[in-house]
């Protein structure tokens, strides 16, 4: 018993000081006029030098948004958001030069250094723990998004040689309009939901990836999102397309400074996988979670959806969610191609006053489609964490399969862990299996570790890591290391 | 406000029969639950709204006796209470001396549409009390409807067990015609008391049955229930169980066997409001033709309910291309030292198992029957009372024979 009491006390003493990404970078910014109106959208579109069709698309989304009601069925509760009391566009004033790193504001580079992002190869080597033990590693191409705009994209040349397009989506709108026109909004329509409509109207940047037929992307692609400016929302938009037999692995990371007020992050991610294509999308989400009393923090309301349009296509979502005051998202797969595969691996950690309502949707439309869902939820402090997921087998999904496992771990008696799965089967030959458990770290496990000389914190750390192993092993190496560190920090006190 | 929203024919007919009071106001305001209501997303009552329901006509004792022999022969022997068309038939009722009939006082649950409807129109019902440490044996509670087209019954019953009391309630519901049955049962189980509730719902295949059970269980008390759903075109069995004292136990087990275009919904909310309680749910669906099964089970564990042991298993066997299942097992947990789990599996009969039996010379139809019965056994075997088990088994058997024929 004392061990657990200690843990609980340690968790309670956890303060905001543990969020080491809470610094603010002093960079001159340019803002759009505060508030949301057609003018704001026209301003954003003009600043991005967008073609007319893009502006029309945004305005259509804005009108859809105006007619929609903010949803309220979710578990997390939050005060009403005043959509007129925020900036929808903030851009670092010094014009970023995507051609070379030297042109980038050194202040910005220092920020990324602090964030530990491998912006250039040196950083990759220096930034990755245990790199020495590994054989020559693949470099990682990074697209960094600072508040509203993408400031730098590395390795563009190498990628171009392979035929891969990896650039800020605002560049893609100008340079590859035919691709953007064809795919943007095809997975998440503009009026899909309240926050997706908002994003469609005001998104300012994000990443665009196009991998042509037969190409295996030669390196990991990565985007780092950072909310820096005060009173801004971040609305990035990511679009990834893999043609027949193409493969890509994409990583996403995010942080924000510590602030007392809440900030909204409403992103949309769309993935399209054609015949035999594979997309692996990994997220380590570490937005500022607010302090121990729940003051401040990011509202992370994100729509992520992938469409397996081709035969035997595969989309795999892996997420480690440790940050944000409220996380509310369901990365989903629409399995429309025969034999296509959807995967969802998730670790969601909440502490203090954090709330998370996350999970996935697997929509099986075609025969012999398969999906796997592994969700691990850890709640500590006064936090609440919910797994909510849908598995739907449509009438044509002959021979489809799903396996779902949801496990929740509670640390302390003031937190909550909830599981809300929806299983809908319209085909007799489809098979769905679901299991869920809720437990705490047992005294036996702790005692076992402690009696072998582990400190109480190390013991809890070991057990939590074991609990999350099935998910962590799905992460690319670079992120697995970071994710483990994050888990430990998020649960500091209970996890060594 | 009511002027702005159109009142459906069903609600209009209900309001014309409703007592004045809170339930009536709520019914008028809320109407019948629709898809927008999360708890009713899989069983919206859209079709029910289209027609009005009148109060049924009374029947003679002879008619009632004949009906009982036809629809619930199991209750011909032994203690029983019989309701036909919403009215108690005193001549057919025989209660043991060990139970006391008390005044009915059913609480209104404003957030439960079935409670609101039942409360607003509430006709008759029976309130039984078993005194401390008395074993009242088995009582059959039979609710039948005849000449049932466009009529509805809204019976409300109450069972109260004092400390250490014991009772087995055999709850049989059946009828003829396109009626609506909307019964409610309020259960109160005191310390160390034990209620076994066996429910057989074999209503007419044109009928609708919307039932609510609201049970409160005290320390070391047990509410052990099993529901067999065979009848009704549309049915819902909603169980609210509140575990209010240490070591209380609740079982909500069920089997739903559906064919044609039947739709059956088993919804449960089990609230663990005290430490060391135990809840068990095993729900099996066998779905033929365009049968549509729904399971929604929620285990809620309060902060103080440490050492909760909660288990929920929902399985569905789909025997036809058009069969459907919607399942939503839900855990809401606020205590850390708990053991809660749920599982759900959905699928067709296993080809390998079929092959195994066929390879041993068993004809296809028989092999199918064996596998379906084996599937159901996990749930049926939880009924420990031999006579009750035999009754359920007979009804399942008859159902299967009829469908396969």
Automatic annotation (TrEMBL), chain A:
NCBIfam families documented for this protein: PRK11814.1, sufB
Superkingdom in the source lineage: Bacteria
Pfam families: SUFBD_core, SufBD_N
Residue ranges of domain SUF system FeS cluster assembly SufBD core in the record: 225-467
Family: Belongs to the iron-sulfur cluster assembly SufBD family.
SUPFAM superfamilies: Stabilizer of iron transporter SufD (SSF101960)
Protein name per UniProt: Fe-S cluster assembly protein SufB
Ranges where the SUF system FeS cluster assembly SufBD N-terminal domain occurs: 161-217
InterPro entries: Fe-S_cluster_assembly_SufBD, SUF_FeS_clus_asmbl_SufB, SUF_FeS_clus_asmbl_SufBD_core, SUF_FeS_clus_asmbl_SufBD_sf, SufBD_N
TrEMBL record, chain B:
Pfam families xrefs: SUFBD_core
InterPro entries in the record: Fe-S_cluster_assembly_SufBD (IPR055346), SUF_FeS_clus_asmbl_SufBD_core (IPR000825), SUF_FeS_clus_asmbl_SufBD_sf (IPR037284), SUF_FeS_clus_asmbl_SufD (IPR011542)
Organism: Asaia siamensis
Residue ranges occupied by any SUF system FeS cluster assembly SufBD core domain in the UniProt entry: 146-375
Coiled-coil ranges per UniProt: none
Name of the protein: Fe-S cluster assembly protein SufD
Source species, domain of life: Bacteria
